[in-house]
Write a structure and sequence with these properties.
Length: 314
């Protein structure tokens, strides 16, 4: 696939709200799989085996808890001389997101993703400075739509833990095409919130109705003050002090809606495995319906802050 000339315009920047700590070895189970009831459906879903999620982000580190689940990748940025097959993560964001979806440690003291037997297609659109543009994002979505694996596999889910404040018609068009093709699109709501349910903060592609827009919530079921609120917010997931894979084979606790979105992407992988004989084009609708009927209602908060509620898988 040929890449277009590099744009000097940057449309979005990714950085966590907070990096709480970096660890080399884990001494306890930090993950939140039981909170969203992921393990409850692992037996029914084979932990997402065979489902492929395209992670459109900052690339990936060759982390020991992820290496077995990366099925391919492509670099759309200017990093490493624009080498398309060098999708190294230099900031840790993409590696952290990937771990939330599909980390599968060989050791007992690693982290475990929501769908640890699913596979990851790594599409790098965020460079070593943490910035990216919509042109590369559009190319990455197109790549995910047309990618075919070594055994004829196709991408079922796209996770976009990124966003910009400006509406882009070309981006919206390809989002619509991807959904029509049967791909579940998941995106972070954004971290420009002010903690007030009556105000509105928009981030694209999350705000597009074809995308499952994910906000952040604390482990106490309180909407995160930084999480964007708007009428198209679909669901909230864990987004504060989330431990996952990071650079140099380490682990880090990061905070942001970027962390909440991959919980939903991993959940989508499990939900798709539960489906039998469903027309591909209807998969996004069925995944959304499953999320809707199982979400934990949060009646104490405005819908613009929590959407349909807190992610639950059973």
């Amino acid at each position: 696939m040929e890449k277009s000339s590099i744009s000097l315009k940057y449309d979005f920047k990714v950085e966590p709200i907070r990096i709480n700590k970096v660890l080399r070895v884990l001494s306890e189970d930090h993950n939140l799989l039981d909170l969203i009831k992921a393990r409850d459906i692992w037996d029914q879903t084979d932990k997402g085996d065979g489902i492929i999620t395209a992670v459109i982000d900052s690339g990936i580190e060759n982390h020991r808890d992820l290496a077995g689940n990366v099925i391919g990748g492509y670099n759309f940025t200017e990093d490493d001389g624009s080498d398309p097959y060098h999708f190294q993560d230099y900031i840790g964001h993409g590696t952290h997101v990937a771990g939330i979806i599909a980390a599968s440690p060989e050791r007992d003291n690693g982290v475990v993703g929501v769908a640890p037997r699913s596979k990851l297609l790594i599409l790098k659109v965020i460079n070593k400075n943490g910035v990216g543009n919509f042109s590369h994002l559009i190319q990455a979505i197109d790549h995910a739509m047309n990618w075919v694996g070594p055994r004829g596999q196709k991408v079922s889910i796209i996770n976009m833990s990124l966003g910009g404040s400006e509406y882009n018609e070309e981006l919206h068009r390809i989002i619509k095409r991807a959904r029509k093709q049967g791909i579940v699109l998941v995106a972070a709501a954004g971290n420009e919130g002010d903690g007030k349910g009556e105000t509105v903060e928009l981030s694209y592609p999350g705000f597009y109705k074809e995308v499952i827009q994910v906000g952040s919530i604390s482990k106490y079921n309180i909407p995160s003050s930084f999480s964007n609120s708007n009428v198209n917010l679909d669901i909230v997931g864990p987004g504060e002090d989330i431990l996952s894979t990071h650079l140099n084979n380490n682990y880090a606790e990061l905070t942001g809606t970027s962390m909440a979105a991959p919980f939903v992407a991993g959940a989508a992988a499990l939900i798709i495995k539960k489906m039998k004989d469903i027309d591909t084009s209807l998969i996004p609708m069925y995944v959304y319906h499953y999320l809707l009927i199982n979400a934990l209602n949060l009646p104490d908060y405005p819908l613009k802050q929590v959407g349909n509620g807190f992610l639950q898988l059973s």
